[in-house]
Amino acid sequence: MFRKIDDKTYASPQITVDDVAQAKALGIALIVNNRPEGESDDQTPGAEIEAAAKAAGIAYVAIPVSHAGFSLPQVEALDAALASAGDAPVLAYCRSGTRSTLLWALTQAKRGMAPDQIAASAAGAGYDIGPIRAQVDMLAANG
Fold this sequence. Notes:
Number of helices: 6
Structural class: alpha/beta
Helix content: 40-55%
CATH class: Alpha Beta
CATH architecture: Alpha-Beta Complex
Radius of gyration: 14 Å
Strand content: 5-15%
Distance between the termini: 32 Å
Shape: globular
Number of strands: 5
CATH topology: Protein-Tyrosine Phosphatase, Chain A
């Protein structure tokens, strides 16, 4: 269920409270919720995931991304969250894992990672950054 994007980042479709134990077993130090609350009736509320994460000793942060797209404050928030985890693994999730992966891609571009490397890492996890490739290229160029 968790798809490894790079050495320290996993993306996932919606997780449940039970999935927090799997995250703990992988050494995940931070769970990032990229899903707006109430997006669908079948999603586990963020507060329940947060409580389970904290009980397991895992940090939690919510950086909701709606279908309206991405903003620089979201990129900066994920950058700060990733930095706070140090070298420890991070799990980001949304409905399918796509928004989490795309936000990761934008963050890596802002950090100066080569766009082709970003695309390859995302593709290796089963995600396509095509819809935001122009933004990735722009952020990488402006670093």
